[in-house]
């Protein structure tokens, strides 16, 4: 059975790029437009891993990561895929429970490698 990845990004074109790379690698993908939307999809889809942007409307990625880690999905690995590259943001992500940080623009193979390492 394929693993399910929840992709959370407010850019539909960016979600498509990520989805195609992950589907090509054999993963099932569920998309969410921001952290609020993603909260509703956690229970329904029980993802094995989350790929999330930092800057989004309604609920940003770091707040969403804190929400995930405070609940029943606290062991679900989270990869941040973002334009943010400051060490302070990365430290905030690590404190929120983020397992990997990939900066945009990125190589799809780099994302697939990180997903396969964290999605056991």
From TrEMBL:
Keyword Cytoplasm annotated: no
Residues recorded with modification 4-aspartylphosphate: 53
Database matches in PROSITE patterns: RESPONSE_REGULATORY
Domain of life according to the entry: Bacteria
Pfam families: Response_reg
Keyword field contains Nucleus: no
SUPFAM superfamilies the UniProt entry points to: CheY-like
GO molecular function: DNA binding
Keyword terms of this UniProt record: DNA-binding, Phosphoprotein
Protein name: Response regulator with CheY-like receiver, AAA-type ATPase, and DNA-binding domain protein
Organism: Sphaerotilus natans subsp. natans DSM 6575
